[in-house]
Amino acid sequence: LNMEGCTELESLPKRLGKQKALQELVLSGCSKLESVPTDVKDMKHLRLLLLDGTRIRKIPKIKSLKCLCLSRNIAMVNLQDNLKDFSNLKCLVMKNCENLRYLPSLPKCLVYLNVYGCERLESVENPLVSDRLTLFLDRSEELRSTFLFTNCHNLFQDAKDSISTYAKWKCHRLAVECYEQDIVSGAFFNTCYPGYIVPSWFDHQAVGSVLEPRLEPHWYNTMLSGIALCAVVSFHENQDPIIGSFSVKCTLQFENEDGSLRFDCDIGCLNEPGMIEADHVFIGYVTCSRLKDHHSIPIHHPTTVKMQFHLTDACKSKVVDCGFRLMYTQSRVCLLDEEINANFTKLYF
């Protein structure tokens, strides 16, 4: 059912929920619409709900819903707390919600979040995603996920710390899953938010776009499952709007006395045209498939790694700081380190 652009529409039929077979409901641009009937929660097959450009503040819990769009909503200030109970929601888009100030805990199945341009957003719930103490992925959960907070300039430091902590936890979680299911490629996570500091959990850091850590002997072992990379990108010298998309990438070169290996990794990308004024922190996780596919780097020798961070199609923007961490998996019990455990203990016990 597509009612896009019905700018005079003020209400929907109260028995809309009786449409049991409806899979997609499009109400984009219905600028006078302030609510949806509560009985839409009874829809068993509704997968897609587009409410961008409306004034709707609350959505009844629709368990079947997989994609929800609330972009350009000027009425919403706080996103409803029961969103974490939308048990099948995988995609949430809330771009340019100019009055949004708060994000609650999100569904654990969510794999795509975009709150680009929510300039008044101040805080996000910690934990950012519900049930974070679950140490392993549901078999149905996707291994690729993206959480974007681009141009959310008013985020409190606590909110940025929550996003960073979630990124660390997600990297650990993917490392465990890839190790236990013997997945060598395909897993990817990235996030970005306004900021100028590489999070402290990256144990190798450098000023500028080049990082050259020295890895001790036996750094490569069967527990190594992924690589976490971080780049702080400055947009201050870019006075022109960004046209199209750009990507943040890293070229890695591993060398020791017996061999070398070179490959590229994606850290993240943005597809939103316009001005990005503040520095942003980009964090990405990739699996170690390139290392596992090559045996030219003996694991028993010290190894030097040269990392060159760079941007594609982003004129005058540059990487000003960077970070790197090898992600090892241990037993499930040891997965969460002291920092994450401490945060969760305060929240749950």
From TrEMBL:
Residues 194-331 form the C-JID domain. Keywords: Leucine-rich repeat, Repeat. InterPro entries: C-JID, LRR-SigEffector_domain, LRR_dom_sf. This is Disease resistance protein (TIR-NBS-LRR class).
